[in-house]
């Protein structure tokens, strides 16, 4: 699937990608027992949460405190970084959230990621035009 999200620049994410990460985090918080992975939209395109989190895996920007709290609340073990909590990077947060999405998908629908399949179909449909 081609990635239509803005790229990182030397490890830094544009503010639009940081805002999309926040939207994805909120969508994860509201994810109940639905079979499909929640989605967010960016510039008229639909993206599953896992795609947004994957796009931020190499981001070295520091996560704002409210996002740190939202991520660490979901951990089963206390957060133990090399520094204080306020130095969590988007990379760390994205990796944690990516694992949580995969765990939820495995629990809900035996690992079939319906949202990713739908996004891939959208990409294929767009490229066929």
Helix-and-strand structural type: mainly alpha
Order of neighbouring strands in the sheet with most strands: 1-2
Helical proportion, percent range:
40-55%
Mean pLDDT: 81
Work out the number of β strands: 2
Order of helices and strands: HEEHHHH
In what range is the share of β-strand residues?
A: 5-15%
Distance between the termini: 16 Å
How would you characterize this protein structure?
This protein has 129 residues and is mainly alpha-helical. It has one domain (15-127). It contains five helices and two strands, in the order H-E-E-H-H-H-H. The chain has helices at 15-29, 49-55, 65-72, 90-109, 114-127; strands at 39-42, 45-48. A two-stranded antiparallel ribbon has the order 1-2. Strand 1 and strand 2 form a beta hairpin. Helix 2 packs antiparallel against helix 4. The chain is globular and about 35 Å long. The two termini are 16 Å apart. The model has no long low-confidence stretch (mean pLDDT 81).
Question: What's the helix and strand layout?
Answer:
Blueprint lengths: L14 H15 L9 E4 L2 E4 H7 L9 H8 L17 H20 L4 H14 L2
Antiparallel strand pairs: 1-2
What would you say about this model in short?
Helices cover 50% and strands 6% of the residues. It has helices spanning 15-29, 49-55, 65-72, 90-109, 114-127; strands at residues 39-42, 45-48.
């Amino acid at each position: 699937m081609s990635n239509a999200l803005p790229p990182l620049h030397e490890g830094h994410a544009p503010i639009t990608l940081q805002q999309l990460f926040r939207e994805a985090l909120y969508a994860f918080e509201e994810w109940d027992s639905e079979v499909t992975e929640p989605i967010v939209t960016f510039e008229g395109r639909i993206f599953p949460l896992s795609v947004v989190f994957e796009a931020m895996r190499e981001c070295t920007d520091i996560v704002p405190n409210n996002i740190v709290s939202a991520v660490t609340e979901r951990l089963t073990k206390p957060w133990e970084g090399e520094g204080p909590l306020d130095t969590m990077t988007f990379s760390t947060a994205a990796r944690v959230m990516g694992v949580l999405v995969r765990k939820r998908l495995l629990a809900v629908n035996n690992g079939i990621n319906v949202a990713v399949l739908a996004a891939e179909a959208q990409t294929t449909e767009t490229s066929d035009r």
